[in-house]
Amino acid sequence: MSMVSLPGLRSLLDTMSQQRSLPPLAVQAALKAALLKGYERYRRTQVRNDEDFPEDYFENFAVKLDLKAEGFRVTATKTVVETVEDSDREIPLDLAIKKGAKVKVGDRVIVDVTPNQGDFGRLAALQTKTVLTQKLQEQQCKYIQETFADRKGTVLLGKVLKSDARGVVLGVSGGAGQPLVEAELPKYEKLPNDDYQEGAEMKVYLKKVFDRPSSKPMLRVSRATSYLVSGLFSDRVPEIRQGSVEVKGVARDSIPTKPDIAPRTKIAVHALDPEIDPVAACIGKLGEHLQAIALEIPGEKIEVIPWSEDPATYIANALAPAQVEGAIALDVENQSAEVLVPPDQLAVALGPEDQNLQLASRLTEWKITLKTLPEP
């Protein structure tokens, strides 16, 4: 069988796989599609005029890569007939038998139609190069969609590839042995205490999988969203993964308005099994779960509080570490609550720049107002 030589084919495939963050098989599929287009160009210049080829004319043709010999062949699937009317789709019975095939009329056989090395000219090569760029882009889009569409809303491990004033580009993996795919971490999704030096690894939340390629990565991730925290707890705490403990809400101030205020998160949890302490389960033995999660978002204070279906109890829990011992007046119609706190607990209940109060309000979804009696 004849072959068109492609010196450096294996090296070319490896390079394209790395540059495009594509598995080798996806790169091969793109190259075969591009070479087939090149073969079509060759046929147009050698055999027929352009208008003689319908769009689907070459659907019975295929390209086969030979990685060991570094080249490619073109084959056509043809039907065995007595009298040939279309040589691109039919082969006479006597010729098929001469080629060594044990066939009869009506059978389909694969025939080598590879052009000579010199015949596959400059125009065909240019056509191949042009189409290859397009096919690689299509394969990249397809791979990202198939790999990450179902992982939207989950936590992934990212590796910093580059960082500038606009944001960070990380590489995230679609699985063991798969190439890293670029993901955009915009400036507004970054954390103030993170180290974004090249090579740094960190957990990120996959917010968006775009359905078409552009100048930016097709994946967008976040470090600032509250969903990252709930995702970290889900990945770390067995009781959450098993469904015996559920996360009822998360309120996060990941980028405080002032640099001297520490980032802070409140997460409310509830156990479906009355025998389980949900807070203890999330903190872990000797605090192992909470410590491991804190390492993923350095410098951020994380508070785990028990959820309650009683709004007054839930509000009091959410205002921790303040000790709320006074009355809580609820206005259910306006979803507002007035909380009476001891004078010595007012500053704690408010927090720096009212951070604790605002997080409690967001977590419980109640507008909370603090009141205190004057000290005697």
UniProtKB/TrEMBL annotation:
Pfam families: KH_NusA_1st, KH_NusA_2nd, NusA_N. Residues 227-307 form the Transcription factor NusA first KH domain. It is found in: Cytoplasm. GO terms for cellular component: cytosol. GO terms for biological process: DNA-templated transcription termination; transcription antitermination. InterPro entries: KH_dom-like_a/b, KH_NusA_2nd, KH_sf_prok-type, NA-bd_OB-fold, NusA_N_sf, TF_NusA, TF_NusA_bacterial, TF_NusA_KH_1st. One of its GO terms (molecular function) is RNA binding. Residues 311-373 form the NusA-like second KH domain. Keywords: Cytoplasm, RNA-binding, Transcription, Transcription antitermination, Transcription regulation, Transcription termination. Residues 11-140 form the Transcription factor NusA N-terminal domain. It comes from the Bacteria. Belongs to the NusA family. Participates in both transcription termination and antitermination. Monomer. Binds directly to the core enzyme of the DNA-dependent RNA polymerase and to nascent RNA. This is Transcription termination/antitermination protein NusA. The lineage of its organism: Bacteria, Bacillati, Cyanobacteriota, Cyanophyceae, Oscillatoriophycideae. The gene is nusA.
